[in-house]
Amino acid sequence: MALSPKLQVKQGQSLVMTPQLQQAIKLLQLSNIELSAFVEEQLESNPLLERGTGDENRRGEDVANVEAADPSVSVDAPASNASDMDAPDHAMNSEATASDIAADVGGSVDWSKAGTGGSFNGSGEYDAVANTAAEKSLSEHLHEQLAMLHLSDRDRLIARHLIDHVDENGYLRADITDIANNLGVAENSVLSLVTQLQTFEPTGVFARNLSECLSLQLRDAGALDMSMQALLDNLEVLAKHDLTKLMKLCAVDKEELMARVKRLKSLAPKPGLAYGGEMAAAVEPDVFIRETPQGGWAVELNSDTLPRVLVDNRYYNEIAALGGDEKTKEFMSECHANANWLVKSLDQRARTILKVASEIVKQQDGFFAYGIDHMRPLNLKTVADAIEMHESTVSRVTSNKFMSTPRGMFELKYFFGASIPSLGGGEAHSAEAVRHKIKILIDEEIAGDVKSDDKLVALLRDQGIDIARRTVAKYREALGIPSSVERRRIFKHSA
C-alpha cells in the first residue's frame, strides 16, 4: 500500500491553562511575603491598580465560629459576580472584609470541640516578635580586621574573596582548590592567607569543619595537646558516647577524659553567631485559630497580611472617553482586564485558604482541645473531598501557610500525616501522635531500664498501636534520639 500525505480535520476537547488561570494557581501557593512582593510588581506595571487605603488595614471579626449547633454546615464559596468588578465606582477592593467572606463561605462554620482547650495569653492578639540583629554583622567585623593587616593588593583581594565565602556560623564553606583555580593563584597562597585570617576574632572563624573550629579555640587558649587533638579527630566516636574507645585513643583515664569533654562543651561550635547577620523575617500567620466563649473554635483570616489593591475604574473610563489610537485602547483594555483578574484571584485565594483551614480545624478538633496525643491521621484527599476541591489545590494552599493557634504556630502541612493502624480494628493513630508517644516513653527511661526498639514496639502495642520495629526506629531517628546502646552508655558514664 502506497504511503501519501493527506489532511484530516478532527474535533476534540482539551484543557488549556490560560495565563489568568496560571496566575491564579501561582498566587495560591505563594506565601504572604511572596504575595506582597508580587502585588508590588503589579502595582508598578499596571496604571489602573492602586494600593488599598489605610482604613482597610484592620482585622475583621471572626469569620468562622465553631459550635455544636450545625456540624454539617456548608463551607462552599459562591462564584464571584462579574458585574461587581465592572461597577462604575472609583475603585474596587481586592479583598472583602473578613465578615463579608464569612457570609459568602456559608455564614458561621460551626462544630463542637470535644472539651476545653488552651486560650491565648493576655488579650489573645497575635504579636509577632520583631527579630533584631546586632549592630555589626560578621562580614563587616571581618572586613574591619582585614583593613588592619599589611597585605599586598593581590592578597587583599584574595582575602576579601575568602570573607565572602564565610557563612553566618563563621565557617569557610568553599573548597580551597576551587578558590585557587577560580582566582588563578597558587593553592599555597590561599592556604597561607586562610591561616592568617584564622587569627581573627571571634576565635574559630574561617574553620572548614567543627574539629578545626574547636582546635583553633583551644590553641588560642593554650589548651591544645596531643590527647585533646586525638579527641578532636574522633568526634564521631564521642557522639556515640563510646568512652572506652576514646580513653584508648586519647591515652587518658576516664576522669581526665571527662574533664576534656567538659572543656569541649565550653567552646563555641558556631562562633559567627556572636555577630549579627541579615535581618530574619518573622513568620506571620495566614490564619488565626481562637477559642470562642461558646466552647468552639473561631477560624479567622489574618487580614493584615492580605495585600489590598483597588481598580481605578474612573481613570479607565476617562481614558476610554478620550478615544485615542488603537494601541492606547488596547493597552488600557488589557490593563483593566488584568487588574480585575488580579482582584478576583486575590479574593478567591483568601476564600480558599479559609475553607481549607476551617476543614483542618474540624478534622483535628481533638488536637486543639487535648494536644498532640489526640491528633488524627489526615491526608489531602480527605480535606479535598470535604470541601469539594482537587488534592493539588489543597496541597498548594497548605504550602508555606501558617496557622496561629492556642498551642503555638504551625504550618498547615503539620496537620497532615500518615495513618498507623490500631489493634482490634479501632480508630487509626496519627504518625505525629505516635512519634510523640515514642519520645515520652524514652524520656521516662532510667539508668536500669533503657528501652530497646523491640520494647518500644511492645509498649506501643499495649496502647493499641499496631506498629513495626523498623517504623519505630525510623521515627526515633527522625526525633534525633540515639539507639538504646548509645543511651545506655550515656546513663553509664553520667552516673
State the share of residues found in helices, binned by percent: 40-55%
Largest sheet: 4 strands, mixed
- Strand arrangement within the widest β-sheet reads 3-2-5-6
Q: Beta-strand level of the residues, as a percent range? A: 5-15%
Low-pLDDT stretches are 56-134
Content-based structural category = mainly alpha
Order of helices and strands: HHEHHHHHHHHHHHEEEHHHHHEEEEHHHH
The number of distinct β-strands equals 8
Kindly give the count of domains. 3
Shape: extended
Radius of gyration: 31 Å
Characterise this structure.
The protein is mainly α and 495 residues long. It has 3 domains: 19-128 and 283-413, no CATH class; 138-274, no CATH class; 418-494, Arc Repressor Mutant, subunit A (Orthogonal Bundle), CATH 1.10.10. Helices cover 47% and strands 6% of the residues. The strands form 3 sheets. Strands 3-2-5-6 form a 4-stranded mixed β-sheet, covered by helices on one side. A hairpin with a 5-residue loop joins strand 2 and strand 3 (297-301). The protein is extended and about 90 Å long. Mean pLDDT is 78; it is low at 56-134.
